[in-house]
Amino acid sequence: MIEPILVVVMLIGMIGFGAPIFLALGASGLLGLYMARGSLAFFFAPTSFFGQLNSFELIALPLFILMGNLLGATPVGKNLFHAASLWLSWLRGGLAISTVGASAIFGAVSGVSVAGVAAVGSIAVPQMLDRGYSRGIAAGSVASSGALAMLIPPSVPFIIYGAVSGVSVGKLFIGGIVPGIALALALCLYIYVRASLNPEEAPLDTGTRAPLRERMRALGGIWHALLLVFIVLGAIYSGIATPSEAAAFGAAGALFIGGVVFRVLDWKTLTSVFASSVKVSGAILLIMGCAKIFGDYLNLVRVPENVSAALTATNLPAWGILVIIMLALVLLGMLVDAVSLIVVTTPILLPLIVTLGYDPLWFGIVLVMNLEIAVVTPPVGLNLYALRGVCPMLRVEEIIRAVIPFVFVQFVMLMIFVLFPALSLWLPNLL
Amino acid sequence: KTTLTGVSYLPPSYKALSFGSNGFVERLGKSDAVTVDYYDSGKLLKADEQLPALLSGAIDFMFHTSSYITRSVPILGITGLPGVVEALYENPDRLKKGSPLFDLINEELGKEGLYMASMMGNILQPEYLWSTTAAPVRSLTDIDGKKVRVVSFEATQVVEGFGAAAVRIPSSELYLALQRGTVDAAVANISTIIGRSLQEQLHQVYKLPLTAFGIGLFTTTKRWEKMTEDERAAFGEAADWLDENGAAEANNSIYPDEFWPIISDAGIEIIEPSEEDLAALDEASAGVREAWIKEVGADVGERAIALAMGTSS
Amino acid sequence: MKHIFKRIAQAFQIAGQVVLAFMMITICYDAFMRYVFTAPTSWSLEINTFLIVFVAAMTAADVQRTDSHIRITFFVDMLGTSAQRFTRLVIAVIGMIFSAIMTWRGVIMAHQAWDFGERVSSSFGTPMVYPYALLPLGFGMLALQFLFNALDAVMGKAPSGDDHQDLQEI
Ligand SMILES: NC(=[NH2+])NCCC[C@H](N)C(=O)O
Ligand code: NA
Ligand code: NA
Which residue has the higher pLDDT, A237 or B267? Predict the structure, then answer.
C-alpha cells in the first residue's frame, strides 16, 4: 500500500510546485504504472489517454465551449444579467442564484457536467464580477451548480450506472429530478444566506427600483438566450438530435446570433473565438485524458476496489455503514474520475446495499450525488479546471477555496437523501 | 507462480454475456499453475483498446465480442454473417472447440498471431430488429424508410438494402434516442436490450436474424506457446468449461427463462419472420457474404460458410 | 529551429480551429439529414469522435508554448527566483520524459495498428493507424516544447507569459 501513497504524494507535490495539472496526473500515474508493472506498463499510458477521449459523448464539451465563447462576443450575457439584476434587485445574491438556475436549465440540456460549467461559467462569472460580486461566490456558484447536469436528466453517469447495476435508466432519470432540484434550491438558499450575512459579497443594485417599463425592456434583451435554450432543448426533446449532438446545434445557434442578429463576428473576432475555444477545449480534454492515466493506475492496483471491500467488512449499524460509505466515496472522488467511481465501486458496494435492505435505484441516485462532489474536489476535480479554462481571470487555487463551502452544502444534501431514501424514491415509484 | 492478466469490457451485470467469462476466470484462478489478475467492466482497458493491448503483450488474455473486431480480424466475420448465423446458432456443435470450423478459424487467426481458446461454445442468439410504438416494424416491408440503429458492419448493408437508414449513435444515447424518436428501431441482441432497459421504450421485436456475435477468449500464439505444460493445461481446462457452458447458459437458460419473459411482461409484441421473409433475407444478404468471402479468400471463406451451414464437414 | 517549431505548433492550433468548425457543421448536417431525409452519414460519429483526440493532443504543444495549461501557481509564487528556476527545470524535464514516453508508445500503437490492419468494425471502418498517430504527433511536439522550456530555465530566460487573455479581449 506504500506505492499508491507515494504516487498520490507525487501528484499533490507536482500540482503544488506549479506543474500543469495534466502533467502532474499523467506523470504520477505513469510512475505508478511503472512501479506496478515494469516497462510493460508504458503501454497503458497512451491507451488510457486515447480510450478516455475516444468517446462521442465528449463532443458536447468543445462545442458548448465554442457556444459560450461565441455568445461572449455578443451582448447576450450582459443583457441576461442586466435583466436578472433589474428583476431580482430585491433579492440578495440574485445574480448568483440566477446562475444556479441557469446551470439547472443547462443540466436539462447536457449530460456531462464539465460542458455545463464551461458554457455557464464563461458568461456568468465575468458578469457577476463586473457587478461587484465576490470572486468566491462567483466561482463557487458556477463550479458546484454546473455539476447538476449529472443529476438532472439526461445524464451520462445514470446511463453508466444503469448498465453496471441493471437498474432502469428511465427510473434513474426520473429519480434524479427531485434531488437535482433540491440541490439547486439548497445552493440558492446558501447563497442567499451568505449574501445576507455578508452584503459586500453580493451588492444589491442601489438606487431606486427601475420602473416597470425599463424592466420590461430588459426582458426584450434576453430572447436570444431563450432562443438558444429552445434550440438545444428542442433538438433533444423533439428527437432531432441526441444530447451530445445538440451541442452542435447550440454552437451553430450562437454563431447565428453573433453573426446575423448582432453582426459582431467579423473575420478577426471569429477566428479569435475559435482559437480560444480550441485552446480551452484542448487544455481541459488533455487533463481528462491524463486523469484517466492516473485513474487507471489506481484501478490497476485496485485502490477503489480495496476501499469498497474494506467497507463491506465493517460491523456497524446500517446507517453507520452508509455514512462511512458516503465519506469514503467523497474521499475516493477526490482522486478518481466520475465514471471510474461508478464502474469500480458499484459491483462491490451494491450487494452490501441490497443486503442492508436498500433499493439499488436509490443507491444510484446517491452515488451520482456523490459525483456532484467528486467533480469539484481537488486534486482530480475536472469542474474546477474547466472553470479555470473558461475564466482565465480566476486562479485555480481561488476556485478551490471558493467551492469548499458549496461542497459542504452538497454534503449536507447528500446526507439528507442518504438517511431518508423515501425522498428520492417517491417520484420514480409514482410513475 | 505465473500471473495471467486478463480483461473484458463487459460489466458483470451483463449476466448472460459474463456468465462464461466469470466462470472461466474463477476456474483458472483456482488452479495451482497460475494466478489470475482480471479486470472486467473496461476498468483497465476500453473495448477498442483490448486488441492492441493483447497484441503488444500488455495483457495475457481477453474476452472480446466478435462483432467488435471483425474488420480487424476478418475470419471472425463468420459469427455475424446474415443468412448464416441462424444455422450456426441452431447447431452449437459447429463452433465447438476442436470442430472443423473452430480449427479453421484458429488456422486463420494464427496467421495474425492470435489464438482463440474458445468461442464460448457457440454464438449467442442472433440480433433481431426491435422497434418503437411510433414506428413499428413487423415485416420486411416495414423496414423501408425507418431509422435503424446498427453497430455491426455485417448487418448495416442488409438493413440499408431493405430501405432503412443505418444510424450510428453511441449505446449510451440509445435509450433516449428510442424514447424521442431519434431512431425508430435498433438491431440488437436481447442482452443489450435488457442491459440498458431498452424494453421500456420498445414495442415489438421482429425476430429476423440479421447478425450475431460470440464472445471469444483470445490470447496470442506467442503467449500460448510460452506457457508451461501446467499453465497450458490449466488454461485449457478452464476454456473447456467455458466452451461447454458459456453460450449454453445464455442461450438455453438465461435468455428463455429470464430475459424473454421480461420482454413479454413489458408488453412487447414478438413477431416471428415468415418463411418468405427469411428467404428474402438470405437473398438480400448474398452480397455481404460475397464481400466477406473476398476478404478472407475464396477457399477459406467458402469452406467456413459450408461448415457453418452444415453443408460440408 | 525554435522558429520552425513555433510555426508548426501554430499550424496545429489552426488545424484545431478548423476541426472545431468541422465538428459543428458535420454534426448538424448529420442530424439534419437523419431527421429530414432519413439519410444520415456513415462517418460523422466515427470521425468526430477521433477529432476529440485531435483537439486534445495536437494543440497541447502550442498551449504549453504560451504557458496556458491549467496549473496552480500559488505556492511557487512564494519561492525565490532561483528556486523558481529550479522548479521550472524539474517540471520541464518531467514533462519531457512523460511526453517522450507517450510519443514512443504512441508510435508503437500506431505502427501495430498499421501492421495488423486494425480498423473500426463499422461500415465506415476507419483504419486505427490514423487516430492513433495523433498521439505521437501531438506528444512529440509537446516533448520538444518541454525541451525548450528546460533550456530556457537553464539559461535563466523568463518563461513566456500567459497570453491566455483572448477570452477577455472579446
Ligand atoms: N455488433 C454488435 N451489435 N455488437 C454488440 C453491441 C453491444 C453494445 N452494447 C452496443 O450496443 O453498443
Ligand atoms: Na443532464
Ligand atoms: Na475530485
Answer: B267
Chain B residues near residue A236 by CB distance under 8 angstroms: 176, 180
Q: Which residue of A has its CA nearest to B12?
A: A164
What's residue B75's pLDDT?
Answer: 97
Which residue among B68, B79, B151 has the greatest number of ligand 1 atoms within 8 angstroms of its CB, and so is best to mutate? B151
State the total domains in chain C: 1
Give the Å distance between the CA of A147 and the centre of ligand 2: 9
Residues of C whose CB is below 8 A from B170: 45
Which residue's alpha carbon is at the smallest distance from atom 6 of ligand 1? B151
Q: How far is the CA of A353 from the centre of ligand 3 (A)?
A: 23
Residue with grid cell 495474425, as numbered in its chain: B112
Position C117 in a domain: yes
In A301-337, where does DSSP find H-type helix? 303-312, 318-335
Residue B254 has phi, psi (to 5 degrees) of -65, -45
Q: Which ipTM did the prediction report?
A: 0.93
E strands, C102-153, are none
Q: A145-170, pLDDT tens digit by residue?
A: 988 989 998 888 887 888 778 788 78
Report if pTM > 0.80: yes
Beta strands in chain B (DSSP E): 2-7, 34-39, 61-65, 114-118, 127-131, 147-149, 165-167, 185-188, 204-211, 215-220, 269-271
Test C64 with A45 for CB contact under 8 angstroms: no
Q: Is residue C166 part of a domain?
A: no
**What value does the mean pLDDT take over residues B254-277?**
97
Residue type, B44: L
Q: Which amino acid is at A191?
A: I
CB contact under 8 A, A169 and B196: yes
How many Cβ atoms are within 10 Å of A185's Cβ, its own excluded?
Answer: 14
Residue C165 pLDDT grade (very low, low, confident, very high; cuts 50, 70, 90): very low
Let me know if residue C122 belongs to a domain.
yes
Q: How many beta carbons lie within 10 A of that of residue B312, not counting itself?
A: 11
User: Looking at the domain assignment, is residue C159 inside a domain?
Assistant: no
- Structural domain harbouring C135: 2-154
C-alpha cell at A231: 434550440
